[in-house]
Amino acid sequence: MHTLSIGIDKIGFYIPQYYVELGLIAARDGTNPSKYHRGLGQERFAVAPPDEDIVTMAANAAYPLLDATDLQHIDTVLLATETGIDQSKAAAIYVHRLLALRANCRAVELKQACYSATAGLQLAASYVRANPTRRVLLIASDISRYDLHTPAEATQGAAAVAMVIAANPRIATLDAPSGCYTADVMDFWRPNYRHTPLVDGKYSTEVYLEAVKHAYHAYHAQGGLNYAQFAQYCYHLPFNKMGQKAHEYLCKVNQIDNDIKKLEESMRYNRIIGNSYTASLYLSLCSALDHRDDLANTSVALASYGSGCVAEFFAMTILPSYLSQRQKAHHQALIAQRIALDYASYEQFWHRPELTQTDTLSVGQYNRSRYRFTGVFNHQRQYCINPDS
Length: 389
Ligand code: CAA
Prior knowledge:
The protein is α+β, with helices and mostly antiparallel strands. It has helices spanning 22-29, 34-40, 54-62, 68-73, 91-98, 116-130, 201-221, 240-253, 261-264, 268-273, 280-291, 322-325, 328-336, 343-351; strands at 6-14, 18-21, 44-47, 74-80, 106-110, 135-144, 157-167, 172-182, 188-189, 198-199, 230-235, 299-306, 310-318, 339-340, 361-362, 371-377, 380-385. The strands form 4 sheets. It has a 9-stranded mixed beta sheet with strand order 5-4-6-7-1-8-13-12-11, with helices on both faces.
C-alpha cells in the first residue's frame, strides 16, 4: 500500500533588522565577554524595533514563501507564540489578512511557551494526512525580552519561522514515532499582567535537560531510530550551550564520545539571532538545511522544549529537493543587512511602547521590511504594507 508522505514543503525565517552585540552588555556590566561567547555559546541577539511585533514578523516570514498554489490550498493558519498581543483575538487573523489568504480558512493561535510550534506541526500533519489536498501555514513568531540587568538579558532574541505543511513535501517528511513529556513546573512563565517573563534561570536549565531526557526515552520506547542513524541534531536553543548540554546527555546515554559535529551546523543562526522561543528549534532546522549540502535522504532529530513544561523528541527525513527549495540566499541576505545597535538605541527599543493604558498611539518607522506595525487606534492594532518594500 502506498503511504502518503506529509511534511514541510517550504520553510523560511524572518529576523528584525537590528541586533545587539553581546560585547556591549559585557562592557556595560564589566563582565568578561567570554562568558557569553563561550559560556552561553552566543554572540549577538536580534532586537525588534517598536514598529515590529509577532504579527509583522510572522507575515514577513511567510510572504516570500507563498505562491498562487499555496494561496489556493492553504485553509488553516496556525500561529505559535509566547509573545501574544491580545488575550482573545488570534494573531493568526491579522496575518491571514496581511497575506491575503482565502476567506474559507481557519486561523488560530497556539500557546505553550517555546513548544507550541511543535504541537502545531503535529496537528497540521494529522490534518493534511486526513485532507491531502489542503495545506497548512504554520508560523512560529516570538520576541524574547527579559528584564534589563538580569542574567537572562543576554539570552534575548527575536525571529519568526514560517512553514507550509503539505502532502508530498519538498523539504522533509515527518516521521511517525514521537516521544512526549509533560510536567507541571514553574521554571519560566509570564502572568497576564507582565510584559516580561518570570524565570528561575538555573532551575529552567535543569528542567530542560530532564524533559528532553524523558522525551528521548519515550521516542525510543516507540521504536525510533538510534543515535547513529541521525545525520544531524536540532534542539530548542534558548542559548547554544543549552543544546550542547542536551546533546552531551544523549551521547552519554548512547555510550559514545560527545559528538558536537552532529550539532554544529544547526546552531549557526541561533548564535547570532538569540532565543526566539517557539521559532528557535525551527531556526535551528533552517541553519542545518542552509549549512549542510549532504542531508538528502538522511534523518534529522528534533528536540522541542517549552517551559512549564512540555518536551517532544521526533524526527524528519530530508528530501533531495531541499537543496533547491531552501531559502539560503534570502536568509543570508537578511543577516547581512542587519544593523548593530548602540547601547542607548538598544534601551530605547527594549522599552517599546507599552500599550496597557493607551487607546491611541502612533509608532515611528524603523522597520523597512514589507509589513509594519504603525500603532494603535481606538484600542485596535494597526498594520500596513511599507510602500517601498
Ligand atoms: N568564560 C567562559 N565561560 C564562562 C565565563 C567566562 N569568563 N564566565 C562564566 N562562564 C560560563 C559558566 O561556567 C556557565 O557555564 P556552565 O553552565 O557550563 O557552568 C555559563 O558561562 C553561564 O554562566 P552563569 O551560570 O554564571 O550564567 P548566569 O547565572 O548569569 O545565567 C542563565 C545563565 C541562567 C541561562 C540565564 O541566562 C537565564 O536565566 N536565561 C533565561 C532562561 C533560559 O534560557 N533557560 C533555558 C532553559 S528554559 C527554556 O529553554 C525555555 C526558554 O526558551 C526560556
